[in-house]
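Morning!

This is the sequence you dropped in the shared folder:
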Amino acid sequence: MRKSPVRKQRRNGAGNISLLMPRKRPKLCIITASYNAQYTLESCIRSVSWQNVDLEHVLIDGSSTDQSYQVIERHRNKFSTIISEPDSGIYEAMNKGIRVSRGEIIGFLNADDFYPENNILESVSRAFEDPEVDACYGDLLYVEKENISKINRYWKSGNYSRHKFYQGWMPPHPTFFVRRSVYEKYGLFRQDMGSAADYELMLRFLLINRINTVYVPRIMVHMRTEGASNVSMANRIAANRMDRKAWKVNQVKPLPWTLTAKPLLKLGQWVSTPPLLQQPSRAIGKSAPHHGARPGVSERAAE
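The structure's back. Tokens below.
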């Protein structure tokens, strides 16, 4: 049974004791973009529904043609909003989700991803108890798409400082939670940025507009590996070109090595050792016999 919050006491300027009620935690909204993800969507939904905080879950489906509809129908009562209609891709879906949602804190969990423990969003909510915090982020674990108990890579983000962007750093986007007021002030995802839309948005928020962000030092998301921007050298070159555009549209110049360092920083993810984790709940589900996400949902959305 959860204990009731304890009121703290402090003395005011006159020496009198006043009562301080605990800060109210803002409501979270999780937006899931999905397209033909019948084999992974259910584990995503379950991992959100077992979180021990008050939240809304918004599903934006790109008019899937597989059995996603049956999965959605089984879990319809777990969503505050469901939209299923054609769109131009993941970032239009994310923007759509932001516009229809009502939560004060916005995060994204795409159909291939899941929260490994039921207190992930409690950690996020706790970070935003401080009204000065505009955003937070954490660590991410890449797991085998057909065997989620097998770890492929460990992305440990570390603390943020502005100079890190110039060294090729960025936080994993699925762990990036932002106040709605930041989107209202600085804009949504730029759909003309292609696969770099998440990178451009975080560059715009963190580096250009200097929003106040904090690092939550824990693995927040498990992501099934595979992604459109990393499957070939040609796609890697195209992604690098869009990364360069992300700096250009924000009228800031990277250092000569910034965009070369960005993919090279990933090399450490293969040798980093993650902390000991509990096995994900059986309620989340196991492996996916087939990978059915939107193009670009998986690895690029985190990169």
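Headline: The radius of gyration is 19 Å.

More detail when I'm at my desk.
O.
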